[in-house]
Design a protein that fits this description.
two-stranded antiparallel sheet; 7 helices; binds flavin-adenine dinucleotide
Length: 273
């Protein structure tokens, strides 16, 4: 068996550093360190495990500004065979609808595939809509929150190929099955991502990474960037967490018992004890 796998990876600001422009509602990216979306590393790991089990060619795919090339080189350093960047000024301002539409068209451009493996969600936009969105545009089945790939069976390229997997649900696990080609979004339980090797890093620096722009995707301009994005971020608020705390001071040994009594009474009044 030999699978063709596509792994979409997003470059995101390092999460501790996410700052939002209160006026525009967009992320301030200037001067902020970017990383591969941490949850996409699990998707890459899932793809690499499948390659070890069945044989596969893995293509990492990213949509973003030219610097997203770095995310692709990191994916290549982990072991991806190929990588493609989808980049054009016309894509800026894309919401999840336009992003998934553009990525789906890029997937079509890459040729026949068996499986798309995405992260559960991106740590900046955090919608978890892009994976299922790509599947919808491609009209293929989607399995979300996959924690274990049990089996892939059938003959690649033929009819009747399928995937069996476990997915996290609110109550525990579900066993699910879908025909290929399909898209899965994976959760951390799939297994810890491997570290890039030195050999992988060198290979990734030498890898030729093609760039697909709006023209090469032959997409209607109405579907791209802001034109193709019906969602607007109107307002972003940072929730203020206020706690009605109480400061209790132990001044000397004698006051300890009294302070403890007061603490217990206070916690009791809050329903904590
Ligand atoms: C504060 C904020 C609020 C936003 N609110 C909305 C909103 O309400 N509605 C809306 O439609 N958009 C919104 N956006 C825009 C949107 O989040 C992103 O710009 C983009 O559409 C990707 O969505 P996501 O980050 O939520 O990805 P998710 O859907 O969370 O990502 C899931 C997976 O899809 C893949 N993926 C996602 N993006 C890419 C990419 N560019 N390249 C390759 N793979 C990718 C990755 O494998 C990832 O793990 C918001 C952005 C910000 C910063």
């Amino acid at each position: 068996m030999f699978l063709k796998i596509i792994a979409p990876v997003k470059q995101v600001p390092e999460s501790g550093n996410v700052k939002i422009n209160p006026e525009t509602g967009t992320i301030i990216r200037a001067g902020v360190e970017s990383v591969v979306n941490p949850l996409d590393l699990y998707a890459l790991e899932a793809a690499l495990l499948l390659r070890e089990r069945y044989g596969a060619e893995i293509t990492a795919l990213s949509m973003g500004p030219p610097q997203a090339m770095r995310a692709l080189r990191e994916a290549a350093a982990m072991g991806c065979d190929r990588a493609t960047l989808v980049s054009d000024r016309l894509f800026s301002g894309s919401d999840t609808l336009a992003t998934s539409c553009t990525l789906a068209r890029a997937v079509r451009k890459l040729g026949p595939f068996d499986l798309i493996v995405t992260g559960e969600r991106a740590t900046d936009g955090d919608t978890a809509q892009v994976g299922p969105g790509i599947a919808a545009w491609l009209d293929i089945p989607v399995l979300t929150y996959v924690s274990k790939i049990t089996e892939i069976s059938g003959i690649p390229g033929g009819t009747g190929m399928s995937i069996r997997a476990e997915r996290l649900s609110g109550e525990g696990y579900e066993m699910v099955c879908a025909e290929l080609p399909c898209l899965i979004t994976v959760v951390k339980e799939i297994g810890p991502p491997r570290l890039p090797t030195l050999k992988g890093k060198i290979r990734s620096m030498e890898m030729d990474i093609p760039v697909l722009n709006a023209e090469s995707l032959e997409l209607d301009r109405e579907l791209l960037g802001l034109n193709g994005s019906p969602t607007r971020v109107v307002k972003i608020d940072t929730p203020r967490i206020t706690r009605g705390g109480k400061l209790l001071r132990v001044r000397d040994n004698e006051s300890l018992d009294a302070v403890l009594d007061e603490l217990i009474a206070f916690l009791g009044s809050k329903g904590i004890l």
